[in-house]
From TrEMBL:
Pfam families recorded: YjbQ (PF01894)
Source taxon at top rank: Bacteria
Protein family membership: Belongs to the UPF0047 family.
Protein name per UniProt: Secondary thiamine-phosphate synthase enzyme YjbQ
Length: 139
């Protein structure tokens, strides 16, 4: 069985944010399946999705610090700066992490590890609302 829906996340500040609860709430609206896969596709090019530590918030602040150090704003050779100095760095960060996740479903729930959570990486200063397409397949 295939099921699909789109959710919209409210605008978040620049940084890394746990969105596991929002994904679980959307998953609960699907017809239940015992085993399957949930594909998440973030429909934007200046934000990202990743799976990582869900307990200690310093992991998320360290992620933001590392990415800002590795892909600095005001890099003189960037030409794609139409929407500000965070424009091209946001696209690079999005490509480094990616915009999709494929997650296992077991007994109708996300089968994540004990300390795993789903992050939205917001790489823009004013990113706005973000849309995620959820596609569930399974039995």
């Amino acid at each position: 069985m295939w099921q699909q829906q789109q959710i919209q996340l409210r605008a978040k500040a620049r940084g890394f944010h746990l969105i596991t609860a929002e994904i679980e709430a959307a998953l609960a609206q699907f017809s239940p399946i015992s085993i399957g896969l949930l594909h998440l596709q973030l429909q934007h090019t200046s934000a990202s999705l990743t799976l990582n530590e869900n307990a200690d918030p310093t992991v998320r602040t360290d992620f933001e610090a590392w990415f800002n150090h590795s892909v600095a704003e005001d890099t003189r050779y960037f030409r794609h700066t139409y929407e500000g100095t965070d424009d091209m760095p946001a696209h690079i960060k999005s490509s480094l992490l990616g915009t999709s996740l494929l997650l296992p479903i077991q007994d109708g729930q996300l089968a994540l590890g004990t300390w795993q959570g789903i992050y939205l990486g917001e790489h823009r200063n004013q990113g706005g609302n973000r849309r995620i397409l959820l596609t569930l397949q399974g039995d």
